Each structure stands twice: as structure tokens, then as C-alpha cells.
Amino acid sequence: MVVGLVITVVIYQVVTTYEGIKRTTTSGADTQQNGIFSLSTLERDVRAAGWGMPSADVMRCSIYLTYADSGSGGGPVPNFPGGPLRITDGGTAAGASDSITILWGSSVRANVLDSLLQNVTANPPATAASKLQPATAVALSSVGGFVWLMDDAGNCALTRITASTPVTLPTTPVTNTVILSHDPATGSATQPNYNPTGNYMTANGWQSLYNANPRIYDVGALVQRTYSVANGSLNSQDYFSSATQAQISNNVVSLKAQYGISDAGSQVVNNWVSATNGASGNWANPTLAELKRIKAVRVAVVVRSPLQERIADGATACTTTTTAPASWPGGPTIDLSNDANWRCYRYRTFETVVPLRNVLWANLS
């Protein structure tokens, strides 16, 4: 009996040790899978930033006017980036993460200028002056797509086309044009409204008359996707399809990002800056000239193991991880001390540099 008990204890210890090693190995594989998937998803969308959008040379906007109503009251489109990509710095508090908002359209005609035949009253009541009438027939992506309405005053209004009516004008040489409607509607969670009423525009200081070289640019379907970290997950939210956050990957504890900027008129990145107001400029709210200098983004995603390691026998605290993970050499600091048990997990950092190729190509054209 004694020999049997000894053998049983030895077998139990071997099984326990093996099970711990197996759980640690499996946890490491899960961490790697979550990290690679998170980084590849982010990288794919960052590469699309600016596609189907007018270039910075075309979009000379001093202010962006946007509107969204999903049934609970209208207001500006949340977190609208005003450019292909915008980083929101999360600060240096424990557990703080950055967020990245990416904007792109579906049209291949984004930089094609469609001059308007007449000055436009932007308020959308059903009057002839409120309609958009291009000087030539336009091949819009589709009814329901978006256009930028702008003129030389610098106000750029995002407008959704609700109807396109063919019309033949008797005056030559302009013939076979269309009249584009941008009427408001009652918004809902499944069918948001992006065209404000005249009362809203007046109350919120929207430009009502476009009379200095008025023009429109077709951007088609719009995607505005924001990536952020909350409650241990990487989440995304697309304001032009659903207001609901979608979980991309779990056990993601931090997201850090910086802009890769060049000198004015150059395509070569020579500095990395956080999205803050500092000595190198106000990158928390970049101007048009500064937006043109952003040529790349550096991203780090920190993923932890799903398994919380136990405290060693006789110890008073976890020693699985003793030093907080790093983003990249010289990069933003990562502080996970908001979780009292953060040392009980294993971490991996996945980091990459993504060029904003649509910005680079636009600057070469």
C-alpha cells in the first residue's frame, strides 16, 4: 500500500506539471493568434485609408460639416477624422490606449470635379435652388452614395444623394444633365439619416449658400472605422453601417500608434510623432498642411495570455511578468498597472509600420 501511494503521488505530480506546461503552451499559441489577427486586420484597413476620397489638394476645407441621425437625435458624425486617418491619443494613464479612425470611399471618381450650373442653397427643402445640378451628366456611384458639396469659401458639407433625375436642358451646349436631390429623412438605427434639416443647419451655423465656384465630388459608399481597446478586447465601430461596436479579438490590452511625418513637399518619413500638441506641431488636431505631411502610421498591439498564472508557493505576488511590455524602441510607454493582477499574465507585442499609400500616390499625381 505504501509503495502504491508513493507511485500515485509521483504520477499526480507528473500529470500536474505536464498539464501546467500544456496550458502555458496553449495560452502562448492563443496569444500569438490573437495578436497576428488583430495587427493584420488593422494593417489592412490602414492601407485602405484615403481610397475613394478627394486628395488634400482638392479638399481645401477650413471646416468639415457632417450630420448623422440614427433615430435618437442628430448631430455631427462622431469622431469624424477630417482626413484619411486620425489617431486619438489615449494619454499616459494606467490602462490608456490610443484609437485609430480610418476613412475611405468606394468611388473611382473622387477627384473628378463636377461644377454646378447654379449657386446652391444647401438647405434641403424641395426647391429648385436646393438641388444639386452639375454642369454635365455625372456617373455617380449610386443613389444613396455620398458627395462632398463645397466651394471656394472653404466649407465642405458631406451630403447623401437621395435621388438622381435626368433632365435635358434646352440651352446649348449643356444637355443631358441630372438634378441630384439631398433630402432629409427620419433616421433609425438600421437606416440612419445623413442630411440635416434646414432648421438644424441654421441652428448649428452651417453654410447655407454655395455661390463661390460651387462643386461636388463623388465618394460613393463611405467607411469610417474606429479601432479601440476596451475591456480587454480590440473593437471596431463603423459609423456609416452600424453604431454597434464589434469585437475583433479578445485579450488585447493596449493599442499604441504614432504618425510618420515628412517635411513639407517630401515623401520621406523623417520623424515619428504622437497625436498630441507638442514641439513638433499640433498633431492632435492637424491642419490641412500637416495632414499632407502624414505618410505612414506605426502601430503596436499588446496581447496577453488568456491564462492567469498562479502565484508560486511561498510567494506573495505573481512574478510571471515583472516588466511592462514595450511598444517599440523609443515608442509610447505602456502602463498596465490598472489591473492589480497584470503581473500574472504573459504578454506579446505585435508592431508594424504601414505606409498610407493612397496619400503617397495622391501627392505624386
**What does the average pLDDT come to?**
84
Main sheet attributes: strand count, strand direction, barrel closure: 5 strands, mixed
Distance between the termini: 86 Å
Total DSSP E strands: 20
Low-pLDDT runs of 5+ residues are none
What is the N-to-C order of secondary-structure elements (H for helix, E for strand)? HEEEEEEEEEHEEEEEEEEEHEEH
Gyration radius, in Å: 26 Å
Bin the strand percentage.
25-35%
Helix content: 10-25%
Overall geometry: elongated
Q: Count of helices?
A: 4
Spatially, the strands of the biggest sheet line up as 1-7-6-11-4
Secondary structure class reads alpha+beta
Explain this structure:
This protein has 365 residues and is α+β, with helices and mostly antiparallel strands. Among the domains are: 137 residues, no CATH class; 107 residues, no CATH class. It contains four helices and 20 strands. The strands form six sheets. It has a five-stranded mixed sheet, with no helix packed on it. Strand 15 and strand 16 form a beta hairpin. The radius of gyration is 26 Å and the shape is elongated.
Task: Produce the secondary structure layout.
Blueprint lengths: L1 H47 L14 E3 L19 E4 L10 E7 L8 E2 L4 E2 L24 E5 L4 E6 L2 E5 L9 E5 L16 H6 L5 E2 L4 E6 L1 E9 L2 E6 L3 E9 L1 E11 L6 E5 L3 E2 L2 E2 L5 H4 L2 E11 L42 E9 L1 H8 L1
Parallel strand pairs: 1-7
Antiparallel strand pairs: 2-3, 3-12, 4-11, 5-10, 6-7, 6-11, 8-9, 12-13, 13-14, 15-16, 15-19, 17-18, 19-20
